[in-house]
Amino acid sequence: MNLHAIKAIYRFEMTRFFRTLLQSFISPVVSTSLYFVVFGAAIGSRIDQVEGVSYGAFIVPGLIMLSVMQQATSNGSFGIYFPKFIGTIYEHLSAPINFLEITLGYVGAAATKAMFIGLVILATANFFVDIEIQNWPAMLAFMVLTCVSFALLGFIIGIWASNFEQLQLIPLLVITPLVFLGGSFYSISMLPENWQTVALFNPVVYLISGFRWSFFGMADVPIGISLLAIATFTGLCLAVIWWIFRTGWRLRQ
Amino acid sequence: MSPIVSVKDLVKRFDTGFTALDGVNLDIEEGEIIALLGPNGAGKTTLISTVCGIAVPTSGTITVGGYDSQTEFRQTRSMIGLVPQEINLEPFEKVINTVRFSRGLFGMPKNDAYIEKLLHQLSLHEKKDAKIKELSGGMKRRVLIAKALSHEPKVLFLDEPSAGVDVELRKDMWHVVADLKKNGTTIILTTHYIEEAEAIADRIAVISRGEIKLVEEKTALMTRLGRKELRVELDNPIEQLPPELSDRGLELAPDGRAVIYSYDTHADRTGITALLNDIQKAGLQMSDLQTRQSSLEEIFVGLVTEDQKR
């Protein structure tokens, strides 16, 4: 294992993040505050409680998941797309590293950034509502797993994309709708019965449900299934990345 | 001594069906500077990319230091440094950080003393904390060399090191290469500036249409294929050669003020004495004599044109 290479990539990516720390920090704080103003205060004042939890608190896990998934995907995709775009990828391809090492470096950094932003949102939310987290270890574990799996997905998108438009395409057209329809701002049980069945095909439902369970002890789907869903998703992404590096798809000539 | 880089029957065919390398065989000895000469699209960059791991060979084998580039890629790639043709650098990064990054990427532990020394050698030390985007083109090229040398490779590939670089900087680059050779680094450079190969290479390999046409010591090549020319300046211009000189294969200069005689330096007799006698007998007054040897460029153009005619 080329640990020095993993460390070098990770550190290089984190330096980029710290160079723009202010933007990285301010943008989630502002958007979270806006969500609280719109959903928490304006709409939330008309909804009392969802399954025994105040609506303001109920949306916190979904809100964190929304940002974490978007951030992990965009950081994961940008990290590997940028060297491709400016041509420095030649160095990665000619270095004595394998797919796992390059993935660990980039995905590790992307996941760390997303995790940081997730925690910033959690802290910001605390200013608006009282949040009691029932199961801290489970909450952190779910957040880490989500960060990693979506950074992996982003990494695949970054390798696939051949221009900036494509880089934005999947996050905009697939991830954002799935997250909004995945119960970020409502419980699946609030949907008509037919739509509840449809919602179960949305992988994000399982992630948000599991995450919410770690906060309030209640979930749309059993926690075991949530874990299984996230494990399957992570495994699938890893398999795709392994295949990409084995065949050199979109990377090696 | 076994070669440090050995390429055997290397074929690289792209998905488009284009064959960029068509059975390349090349052995590179440790410590030498070898220049790969070839016209655009001859396969120079593809050959380098395939040895370095950026392109996957269709068939054939490459060994570096005795290790196979496919099955033992960690060993082979650790031994190689690559300076690409294009200036590909992260614009917002500091010089020293980007060099440190390369060292780590190639699996070497942090060693700032070595990196500082390297930056000194390449006259980059003063700019070590500058951002890449603030550097001139020549400086950026030096950063690429520093990155390629950051992991202390035994073999350095320079792909067109002086493309788009001014004359002064090109000479500078040659000094850098000469210093590296002194330290025992094996250097493979591609170029289409023949004077560059002439100035710094020990051996020349000519590549055309994906095949190595010849590999030879530079001096041996220049004497073997090079011809010499004797130019006899005349006092008074003539319109045509006198009949006594017509069967000597002479050429008359366009202005009629000189006759030019080409000869092989290795022939038993060059025929110069007899020629000068005959010129005198023909009643021509000589004012000056000059000789010149054909350059590597003329040899190269001759080889490639011959290949393209076939």
Automatic annotation (TrEMBL), chain A:
It is found in: Cell inner membrane; Membrane. InterPro entries: ABC-2_transport_permease, ABC2_TM, ABC2_TM_bact-type, ABC_2_transport. Residues 19-248 form the ABC transmembrane type-2 domain. One of its GO terms (cellular component) is ATP-binding cassette (ABC) transporter complex. It holds the Pfam family ABC2_membrane. It is a multi-pass membrane protein. Belongs to the ABC-2 integral membrane protein family. NCBIfam families: PRK15066.1. This is Transport permease protein. It comes from Histidinibacterium aquaticum. The lineage of its organism: Bacteria, Pseudomonadati, Pseudomonadota, Alphaproteobacteria, Rhodobacterales.
UniProtKB/TrEMBL annotation, chain B:
The keyword Transport applies. Gene3D superfamilies: P-loop containing nucleotide triphosphate hydrolases. SUPFAM superfamilies: P-loop containing nucleoside triphosphate hydrolases. InterPro entries: AAA+_ATPase, ABC_transporter-like_ATP-bd, ABC_transporter-like_CS, ABC_transporter_ATP-binding, P-loop_NTPase. Residues 5-234 form the ABC transporter domain. Keywords: ATP-binding, Nucleotide-binding, Transport. This is ABC transporter ATP-binding protein. SMART domains: AAA (SM00382). One of its GO terms (molecular function) is ATP binding. The keyword ATP-binding applies.
